[in-house]
Amino acid sequence: MTQTTPPAIGIPTPRNPRTRASVLLALAMAGWGTIGLFSIQAGTDAITTTAWRCVFGAATLLVLSLATRSFQTSIWTRRAVLLTVVGGLALVANWAFLFFSFSQTTITITTVAYHLEPFFLVALGALASRTAPRRGDVAWLFAAFGGLLLATQFVGARGIQPLDAAQLLGVGAALAAGALYAVATFAAQHTSGIRPYPMTLIQCVVGAAILLPFAHSLDWGGSSWGWIAVMGIVHTGLLYSILYSTARVLSTITLAALSFVNPAVAVLVDVLVYGHLPDALQLLGIAIIAAATLAMTLRNR
Q: Which is nearest to 186 in space by CA: 289, 299, 300, 99?
């Protein structure tokens, strides 16, 4: 029997299951678009932010797992657990690189570079199947790379504009985060038996166990822990629950289209909060990446 997510309190939602799922997923994507703001406002280093996000996320996911009896309904095999751990290592490393990127460059540039992730996922699929990627995918990859050069201002109205060391580190970290997220997604796609809540819980526990020894203690008297707590409870626990519950209802086309709510909100936050207004060429680059990613996603659905 297909289960649908109950509407959030105070938010009227349509009766049609697909429409309701679209609204909820759009809200989740909008929420993820604010994570750069929370990372910057926390003011902690990438390792500390990631480690404590794992702690708060694990606590939330444990409650969700128990409430939905996901432990009892999961099928535990050695292969599934191994893939979950491997995916967890990639997922947590992805968070660390992402938070580091936010500290080096703008939210807009980080988000745009990070959202080249679908191309890394296609490359992993090609390697796993030992088949060459299609020419169309390669063409869209080059188009997206050109968009990245514009969006990061490496290429501007005056030609090539070398990035400073911090910007290069930021873009590189965002690309690494996207590649690692592709690994985590690929591992999840090939994991069967374990329900989503316990799967993500295991990954958060693994991340916390590895990173906490290298993380700083939180200042419980300040505000930074609150920003990280929201990232763990909301961005990891609650928003993941919306993603998992709506992905089974919506088509690939709808999922691909709604995924662009995330970078749109991230750019808006960057403009409104930090005053980082993209210029015309940056906006063109963002549009090229969006078009290339959407086209490639639909080609590989």
A: 300
The residues near 69 (Cβ < 8 Å, ≥ 6 apart) are none
Kindly state the tokens that stand for 9: 């309190």
- What is the model's pTM? 0.82
Q: Using CA of residue 127, residue 188, residue 263, residue 45, what is the dihedral sign?
A: negative
Whole-number pLDDT of residue 202:
93
Place of tokens 């626990």: 237
pLDDT in tens, 165-209: 898 999 999 999 999 988 988 888 788 888 889 988 999 999 999
Phi and psi based region of residue 153 (left: phi greater than 0; alpha: psi -120 to 50; beta: remaining): left
- 156: β partners: 159
Q: Which residues of the chain have pLDDT under 70?
A: 1-15, 248, 251-253, 256, 297-301
167/164 Cα distance (integer angstroms): 5
* pLDDT at residue 6, as a whole number: 44
Helix ranges restricted to H, the chain: 17-32, 35-42, 46-67, 70-73, 78-104, 107-114, 117-129, 135-151, 165-189, 196-211, 224-230, 239-247, 252-258, 261-274, 280-299
Which amino acid is located at 131 in the chain?
T
Whether 74 and 195 have beta carbons less than 8 Å apart is answered as yes
Q: Domains of the chain: which residue ranges?
A: 17-299
* pLDDT score for 258: 77
**b/e map 4-42, b = 16+ CB within 10 Å:** ebeeeeeeebeeeeeebbbbbbbbbbbbbbbbbbbbbeb
Q: Which of 165, 173, 45, 185 is nearest to 97 (CA)?
A: 173
pLDDT at 256: 66
Residue with tokens 């289960």: 3
Sign of the CA dihedral with 148 first, then 152, 158, and 160 last: negative
Phi and psi angles of residue 260, each rounded to the nearest 5 degrees, phi first: -85, -5
Q: What is the pLDDT of residue 71?
A: 94
